[in-house]
Specification:
By secondary structure, this protein is mainly β. The protein has two helices and 23 strands. Strands 8, 9, 10, 11 and 12 form a five-stranded antiparallel beta sheet that branches. Strands 1-23-22-21 form a four-stranded antiparallel beta sheet. It has a four-stranded antiparallel beta sheet with strand order 2-3-6-7.
């Protein structure tokens, strides 16, 4: 009985800390803060110097991280726990190029020390792969899809105060990332590899669908910046000269006009983790600060660390 009571008290304390952080949130990229972020982002280039400020070891198995957002002093990160990897077919079957595999979708909450505060499971059946996530000032939007292109997805809305997922709708494609257009109230989304842009209303009706004209990187994690823009991060794998199997991970960031989905500004990121992954491989979150831009990333799987970089001001 005493053990059960202690667990209940611990759970209440965790939920309380999450609620407090939500109530004290100051870092959501809305309004003037978001406008400043977009202005500073357009000053970034391939020559921008990034200084690593922190390396925070996560005190839990992060599996394969996908998307991240920040509310107050807490970090929310989606991840897929792969139990059985999908296997590619020799020839497509029923429109699919691989098996479904097996896994579990997660939405983690952790603090600035890397301590896990909350872990909720997301998905259903073959739909276990969460994508990029975003916070719109009220809720976190998360897509959970089959781990293969041209498949199916569930779109969830999660209240950070209660941390209970609410299914909003289902759609017939792999949605790899989603965010809310706070100006119109609709949802912007990207498909597998971000080759297709979608706009949904909150009941799941497709308002628009278009091809991504940029082939620089595949967007994975996108977040709103101000009322009219979104910033996406991702990678593309390029072949290494002289090797049939080795790949070079090219990382990058892009600023998009949320209304037209036109690319406004983009740049490569040539920073790598200790495991050799580009820092935009998995979740990325950009934050406007008084001195510049902070970039948070979790590029490695399993025993991961959150890396924090700051853009250095140009010297005259």
């Amino acid at each position: 009985m005493m053990k059960k009571m202690m667990l209940t008290l611990a759970a209440a304390a965790t939920i309380g800390s999450v609620t407090t952080a939500f109530a004290n949130s100051e870092n959501v990229q809305l309004g003037k803060d978001g406008e400043q972020l977009t202005e500073k982002f357009q000053e970034l280039s391939r020559n921008t110097e990034w200084e690593q400020k922190e390396k925070i070891d996560l005190q839990f198995n992060s599996y394969h991280p996908q998307g991240m957002t920040k509310i107050g002093d807490l970090y929310y990160m989606s991840s897929v726990q792969i139990i059985e990897k999908p296997v590619k077919y020799e020839k497509p079957r029923d429109g699919y190029d691989r098996t479904t595999g097996k896994g579990v979708g997660h939405l983690f909450v952790f603090n600035k020390d890397g301590k896990l505060l909350k872990d909720i499971e997301l998905g259903e059946g073959d739909m276990y792969h969460p994508g990029g996530i975003a916070f719109d000032g009220k809720a976190i939007w998360v897509s959970v899809a089959e781990y293969r292109p041209n498949s199916k997805s569930i779109i969830y809305k999660v209240d950070p105060k209660k941390m209970v997922p609410q299914e909003m709708f289902r759609t017939n494609d792999h949605i790899g990332g989603i965010l809310s257009d706070r100006k119109k109230g609709n949802l912007k989304a990207v498909s597998w590899g971000s080759r297709i842009f979608y706009e949904f209303n909150q009941k799941g009706k497709i308002v628009s669908k278009s091809k991504n004209p940029s082939h620089f990187i595949d967007y994975q994690d996108c977040e709103g910046a101000g009322k009219e823009y979104m910033i996406c991060s991702g990678i593309t794998e390029l072949p290494q000269h002289g090797s049939h199997s080795a790949k070079y991970e090219l990382g990058g960031l892009a600023l998009l006009d949320m209304k037209t989905m036109d690319m406004i500004h983009e740049l490569p990121i040539s920073l790598f983790s200790s495991q050799g992954h580009t820092i935009t491989r998995n979740p990325v979150y950009l934050e406007n600060t008084d001195s510049g831009i902070n970039l948070y990333s979790v590029p490695d799987d399993d025993k991961s660390s959150m890396l924090v970089f700051e853009s250095k001001k140009k010297t005259k």
